Amino acid sequence: MSFSTHGKEKLAKEKKSHFEMDIHHPCFINKLLTVMNKNNIDVEMLCQDAKMLHKLLTPSVLIEHVTDNTIIEKPILDIKTFIKNNPPQAIIFFGNNDIKQIEHLVLILKYLRSENINTKTIPIFISGKGGHATTTGPTPFFTEAETIARRLCELGINNKIILEKEATNSGENVRFIDALIKKEIEENNKVFNHLVLAGSPVGIVRQTRTFEEQSTTAWKKLSSLPPHWTILQQNYYSKLPDSLINFYAALREAGTFFLYTLKNDFMSARAIDETILKDALQIYLRYFSFLTNKKMIAKDFIDLFCHFAKAKEKAKSLSALINQDTHFKNEQEVLLNFFEPISFYFRTGFDLVEKQWMKHLTENNAPTLQIQSAQLPIPTYSIFNVDPVNANDARLMVRDTEAGLFLENKYSSLFKKSV
């Protein structure tokens, strides 16, 4: 695929300055509901769009070193059959705020036990201080790693748990876990040929590909085993306001994945299935257009993005691609001019969603609870459930009765269909 000079100029017109970011809307959630109503999108249709995004973001895959220079990726169609035939030597947990993913991992371990596979010898490496917003200095309450470890213990997991409490991004997760794995190999004569990577459902594709690209551990198999879509829908897209918050999170994470593809070599260069990639890009750009009333030549950008991703895979890295031909440097510039402001829009918008939601919860509870607001046990991909220990927290009632019903009553026409 090649773009003419005229075509490049046409695409290049979509500059950052052309996107006037409406990130100060009083309520991003209300805005999304308004957009849904205006475009005749009900919750069932929103779930279908989320499903298409999750095909990109939440794959069950096996990444395998076939030879020293050849890595292949295979879809895992049946987790139970796969994990029974390929029990892991170690489990890696990237820090995140998703208690449902912790429960999913526990179910996998319990299933292995039911098949008379000794899971107690499987160490669990957990990494995470907090996300990109983590401040310097002591972390209030508990780190992500400590929170996940506490939850695993509460759910009856007594495997050896090895914590790393300083990582603030996926690159640090990989680097710090690598050091712990190598230490375990040296001190206890361990062999870790098969690693299972667990993480947030929206982030698992980026985390797995980051580990594949940056890890220096001598693994042969790396697998990600997130929940099936039916479970994701039940846990994250079955009620308000969780479904809207989580959809925003999926859009934000999709934008991060797209930017990583265009900007750096953090992840492996292997291209995503083109149908899955195009579907995710279409949904991503469609909702940006809905929310901003911006008309765009989406198909041209989608085609160019897929062309660029395939060229990156063939070159085996972004740096090699850019160095081999100035044509690709120009394509990269055009794509970044288009995608960077959109990614910024969703990232900033989701930050506001989090803040607005936290403000709502703390305003409707006693002041003494405000300092605990970072520990809300709500199953979203956000900061709400940093400490999920108290599953019966009374603040969940605030979410369901005040926020959820308020939104549902205000936009009742959208919720006629059962999800």
**Distance separating the two termini:** 41 Å
Mean pLDDT rating = 79
Give, in order, the helices and strands. HHHEEHEHEHEHEHEHHHHHHH
Biggest sheet: strands side by side, in what order? Answer: 2-1-7-6-3-4-5
Number of domains: 2
Low-confidence stretches: 1-8, 10-26, 132-140, 364-419
β-strand percent reads 5-15%
**What is the subunit arrangement here?**
single chain
Give Rg in angstroms: 22 Å
* Count of discrete alpha- or pi-helical segments spanning 4 or more residues: 15
Q: Could you say which structural class the secondary elements and strand pairing correspond to?
A: alpha/beta
Largest sheet: 7 strands, mixed
Helical content class: 40-55%
Number of extended strands: 7
Shape: globular
Characterise the protein shown here.
This protein has 419 residues and is of the alpha/beta class. It has two domains: 1-58 and 229-419, no CATH class; 59-226, Rossmann fold, CATH 3.40.50. 54% of the residues lie in helices and 8% in strands. It has 15 helices and seven strands. The chain has helices at residues 5-12, 28-38, 43-57, 79-85, 99-114, 144-154, 170-188, 204-214, 229-236, 242-263, 274-292, 298-315, 318-324, 326-363, 395-410, and strands at 61-67, 70-75, 90-94, 124-127, 161-164, 194-198, 221-224. It has a seven-stranded mixed β-sheet with strand order 2-1-7-6-3-4-5, sandwiched between helices. A hairpin with a 2-residue loop joins strand 1 and strand 2 (70-75). Helix 3 crosses helix 11, helix 7 (170-188) crosses helix 8 (204-214) and helix 10 (242-263) packs antiparallel against helix 14 (326-363). The radius of gyration is 22 Å and the shape is globular.
